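Input/output pair, single chain:
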Amino acid sequence: MTSPDLLERLRAIFDARDRERMQPTIDAFLAVLADHPDDPHVLYEVGGSYDTAGEEETAAGYYERALEAGLSGDALRRCLVQYGSTLRNLERYDESLAVLERGLEQFPWSDSLRVWHALSLHAAGRSDAAVGELMELAADRVLSDDLLRYEAAIRGNAEWLREVDAARTR
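Output:
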């Protein structure tokens, strides 16, 4: 289990990062990793720093190690979003969808997982399913009178798009 002091150290490094100059952040996380080589939170943060730097292949390896090391809780949810996105960027669409679907099984309330899942569906050439997922998310989360008036139609169209996608992918 990751100690509160270590989590605070990781948070301080993350908060100090400069997204335009990620090498100092990568170096800081690697220094922590040298002292805690099997800690899932450290592995996740190292992966995230490489991901932000645009080094997806390296990031993927650290995300995999973090998952294997037993990452849990909200950090697990964030890791699954980021790992799924990284796999999509690497054009590993089936793997991306599998990771994001695992996340949706464990965190069905996560809007970020739903959005990135839709993005991966689209990247994989499954635009009907992607639009359906985003329509359902809009129906679930955009609570305006204008949209609520059409909620049943939005949900019906979302389901129809999923059925079209299912028929195409059979």
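Residues 151-169 form the longest helix (19 residues). The chain has a mean pLDDT of 96.
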